[in-house]
Amino acid sequence: MYIDRIRVTLLFLFFIAVSGLRAQDIQVSLGPDAIGENQGWTITVTVHNDRLRSYDNFPDIEGFRKRGTSTQSTQNIVNGQISSSQSVIMTYLPTRQGTFQIPDFTMKVNDQTIHVQGKTVTVGAPVQRRDPFRGFFDSHDDFFGREETEFIDVKDDAFLALTTSKDEVYTGEGFNTILAFYVSEENRAPLQFHDLGRQLSEILKKLKPNNCWEENFNIENIEGERIELGGKNYTRYKIYQATYYPLNSETITFPSVSLEMIKYKVARNPTFFGQNRLEGYKTFHSKPRTVRVKPLPPHPLRDVVAVGEYKLTEAMPTTDLTTGRSVAYGFSIFGEGNISAIQKPDVTNNAAFEFYEPNIRMDVRRNNGRVSGTKTFNYFLIPREPGRYDLGNYFRWIFFNPETGKYDTLRSKLNVYVTGESTRNAAIEANDDGSFYDRIGTADNTLVVAGESSWQGVVFGIFILVALASSAYLVFKK
After folding, report:
1. Measured at the alpha carbon of residue 459, what is the angle toward residues 454 and 465, in degrees to the nearest 5?
2. What residues make up the domain containing 358?
3. Which of 8, 113, 222, 302 could, after both became Cys, cross-link 296 (CB 3.0–4.6 A)?
């Protein structure tokens, strides 16, 4: 009896789960066939009886630009049955009047692929929006003095600017670059970003210099931060930030770039039900900027040295070594600069040590307008000769410090003590020169003329003649 109840319960839960899966419904609906030039057109994704967990990017449509998304949710209870829906709505704004074809497209919603059939949309002249209760007062317009809404352009207090942390740098020295939109706290003009991804892609094509290494800060969310400029408070919206490292001494020139913003005109006499602002566009331009680049001072290695402010840490499990036994050694360079450009120390084998190629580990951090990090070279070395050795004679790394304007050297400070027998001869004996050299001691050293004939040559000649005669006989026999 107990087992039967369990079976009934499981069966009931199974039907509930199946019915829940069937109840889930995903719909993608398109906006109307015709709109005015000042109206928005939408694509709506709706999930019924489930959460809207994920969805793909909405498609780009020729003749329209994305305005942004909004969400909504509903819940109904009818006769004890609960139904719900969640929607995300992408609004598109037409760029001009005309007839546009919305192509077929697919979207992935809640891990399901939805195929959507396109349509034709006609964009006509701007539609005059009216108050919903305007008709009630039409016969009394003269009494109330009502007239068409007049919109005015409020002067904005905002600008686009590209700034650099330095106006002059050495070759290889980093400088931070920020492209940002600044809005004064006294600004009263309504402004809004739009289509920023496409615009930024075009901006960076013009902005990025070809003769620099770039460390991009990868701004994903644009958030305002309060700053003060010339005694005036602004909200700064960083659009792009990177640190550049000049690869040569050519002057770096950043051209003027443009950013289009949505700017609204506001109604001169706002009404409760009427349209109180009118959407428009304004393009902001940054000023060009130049960064001068100085060549490094003369030095035999000035074309290959790293530039920055660096320090050294090193690690070794023990400084008491034994000949023939390998030991690990870590040479870590850390500081501020182009960490990716740091090259390994120039270490060569000699009679006292055998060095193996290092394993390399790099850690780069980008924050507060600075690029810093660590690059570690992990070596294995084998002592060959006993004695006391200063590793600074083997591990040293030269760089240029732009703050001091001088070259500097990071050098190991460890002294190691090697005990045991010399392994130099053992290393030589371990090399097998092959059987050719083994026969040198027993070989005949009598001089022989290279062109001298021998019986092997005679036999070989007779064999060739017989082969030719046989071939000729077979040819003429046919």
Report:
1. 130
2. 306-427
3. 302
